[in-house]
Amino acid sequence: MTTHLATCTCGQLTLSAEGEPSRISVCHCLNCKRRSGSAFAVQARFANAEVVIRGISKEFALAGDEGGIARFHFCPECGATVYFLVDALPDEVAVPVGAFADPGFPAPTVSNYSERMHRWLRLDEGIEQRY
Predict the structure, then answer these.
(1) What is the extent of the structural domain holding 75?
(2) For a tag on the chain, would you pick the N or C end, based on fewer CB atoms within 10 A?
């Protein structure tokens, strides 16, 4: 079984996940753009039972466009987000794919808020478009 290791920039906060993610998606919502500092964010979801978190985190709760709450956990030392919890998905942990620092990580299969995607961005043709 594959183990995926996500870490903050300084290494104080880590998350290990066993197996493959239940979903990998990109998001083009304005909150994800601001949070990631990029044109979009990429995240992978894992079942709570597959995840072990070590280190100290601070939490920032953010309401999405439709009112749902996501609780972002970041390192208080370096500020990097390592995981987040979505109130509407209590059995899963979401991890920004960049925290894995793994160029071989599987590609996303879903694109959320596609109508807000930057015009210059191109995704694989087979990716499911939402919103």
Answers:
(1) 3-129
(2) N
